[in-house]
Amino acid sequence: MKKISGELQIDRFLVPYRVYGEGDAILVCLSGAKQTMSAWKSVIAYFHKQYRVLVFDMPGQGRAEILSGSPRVEMEEQMAVVHALAEQVGVQASQHAIIAGASWGAVLAAAYCERYPEDFDQAVLGSFGTKPNMVLKSVIKQVQTLIDEGRAKDIAPMMIDQFGQYIPDTLKKQILLQFESMSDEQFRAFYEHSLLVTEMEDLTHYVDLSRIRVETLVIMGQYDTIMDLFDTKKAAEKIPNSRYHLQKGVGHFLHWEDDRVLQVYEDFFVNGLAEQEKRKVDQS
What we know:
The chain is of the alpha/beta class. It has a single domain (3-131, 203-276), classed as 3-Layer(aba) Sandwich (Rossmann fold). It has nine helices and nine strands. The protein has helices at 41-47, 75-89, 104-115, 134-148, 155-163, 169-180, 184-200, 229-238, 260-283, and strands spanning 3-10, 13-20, 25-30, 51-56, 65-66, 97-102, 122-126, 215-221, 242-247. Strands 1, 2, 3, 4, 5, 6, 7, 8 and 9 form a nine-stranded mixed beta sheet that branches. The radius of gyration is 18 Å and the shape is globular.
């Protein structure tokens, strides 16, 4: 498998990224809060023959560095990171470009597609929510309390218990090891991110979902405890060219929990590419 590794300085951040595969189409992956680029391993393995798959660590996560300023990374700064990386890999010149976000990454992907409607042809919003439900609010409060009390290492077991019950044991161990190796600066960035989510309260105050023009798949897990499935379905209906898919038997982490989710992604991608080719023929 071909792999390109690099680092890109974007304003006050140093962002590591990887590009896997050699396809003409590009798949840009946005991770959830505190997830590193390794969260997309199964996606890379499944899609690298058809797509160039871009993964990266958002500032405050993994090996990314905040070179100066606050540990808080605002949404505008996160969108600037995505935009710079999209330009770096040539999204706008590609045959077909897809942005796929998981959890917070899905929130960011939705905001990005409203802001930059011409960059991507398709979007996947996985485990997407416009506002935190009561369980997520409780998790956020516990995260803040544990960090304040110097018990940040207890965050991972709490999160697994609250919404990671369906993750395979190997991935649970990976999460535990990740949190055990996190620095104080990374925990502070996590704390600041939790404040950002709390202060936003409702994404629709910041993003007009009706202005998202790309073909969009909103996919949720049947057993997702921290997203309101009814609220997400209503949000999907506001996106003009969207479809809503409820994946049975999985929770919040979708393709981490069950490889069958990858087939759902593939069907969506293939249909979108076929429609794009048809439009080109019709216009010629």
